[in-house]
Write a structure and sequence with these properties.
The protein is an alpha/beta fold and 223 residues long. It folds into two domains: 107 residues, Rossmann fold (3-Layer(aba) Sandwich), CATH 3.40.50; 81 residues, Arc Repressor Mutant, subunit A. Helices cover 50% and strands 11% of the residues. The protein has ten helices and five strands; from the N terminus they run βαβαβαβαβαααααα. The chain has a five-stranded parallel beta sheet, sandwiched between helices. β4, α4 and β5 form a beta-alpha-beta unit. α5 runs antiparallel to α6. The longest helix has 15 residues. The chain is globular and about 50 Å long. The termini are far apart.
């Protein structure tokens, strides 16, 4: 299994660290944990991280936004940075984070499956997807379906048992738009139902095994 790079995690939250450790293992990457922004700047050095997961609220004098800026100044804007927050969770907060250059902005508590899906999407967008192609992330049939980033997001949320309305609220889009995306991804996957699509999501590793039953039950109930 080839080494693909390093995932930098700047957060003292145990749940975030556990989720990040899970996705790093799935991607065959190493992971570096630091508790605050000051420590993050100290460990950066000259090694470009494959991906950074950074809490907006950090102890010390350096905020998550400053860590984001420093990462891009040192290594370029193509370093994917996912901001996470349990307090600044409003739409304006997320928009501000994205405008500052974050590749994504997630609200705590994090779902491991969603974080994995977002990390994969960010790596594809940064052009680093090839770095994990020779590791544990073997190409699966669903990869050939050419799902859009939004369709990957919705597939991951369906697999977590989210309803159409809950997905719309999470992604800040209308339920009608969610329904349209679901129809498109079903067609691309060759799936005849949401339950079939969710089963494929499990094959992709978008959700942990302990939430499979819940996701399938919710998907079947929505048919």
């Amino acid at each position: 299994m080839e080494y693909c790079g390093n995932v930098l995690v700047v957060d003292q939250d145990d749940a975030t660290r556990a989720a990040a450790a899970h996705i790093a293992a799935r991607l065959s990457c190493e992971v570096t944990f630091v508790d605050n922004g000051d420590a993050a700047l100290d460990v950066l050095g000259a090694d470009r991280p494959l991906l950074a997961i950074v809490a907006v609220e950090l102890s010390g004098t350096t905020s998550g936004f400053e860590v984001l800026r420093e990462l891009h100044e040192r290594f370029g804007d193509d370093v994917p940075v996912i901001l996470v927050s349990g307090k600044r969770t409003g739409t304006l907060d997320r928009v501000a984070g994205l405008m500052l250059g974050a590749d994504d902005y997630l609200v705590k508590p994090l779902e491991t499956g969603e974080l994995l899906a977002r990390a994969r999407r960010s790596l594809r967008r940064s052009g680093a997807g090839g770095a994990i192609a020779n590791g544990s992330e073997k190409k699966r049939p669903v990869d050939d379906a050419h799902l859009s980033p939004r369709e990957y997001e919705i597939l991951a949320l369906l697999a977590q048992g989210r309803s159409q309305r809950e997905i719309a609220s999470t992604l800040v889009i209308s339920p009608k738009t969610v329904a349209t995306h679901i129809q498109h991804l079903l067609g691309k996957l060759g799936a005849h139902s949401r339950a079939q699509a969710v089963a494929l999501a499990f094959q992709l590793g978008l959700v942990d095994p302990d939430v499979r039953a819940h996701g399938l039950v919710e998907a079947l109930a929505a048919e």
